[in-house]
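Hey,
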Amino acid sequence: MNLVELTEEIVKSLVTNPDSVSVKEFPTEEENVMLIQVMVEESDIGKVIGKDGRTANAIRTLVQASSALKDNKYVKIDIDKF
């Protein structure tokens, strides 16, 4: 499972409507940096970010740890609503 799929699985398990979740990887100018954008419905954004951003930080930690085992890239995760 790659990092985008891992992020998508984690986020889909948190939201009310998992079919509306969109997770995409975008290229960056920096060499060992990966940018993952997560889009969720407005009603689910609080569930993904969590109180004081704790859930979002936990997602970032899990994905970064997985990256350290495989690619050793720094992962940036941007969470937004549509």
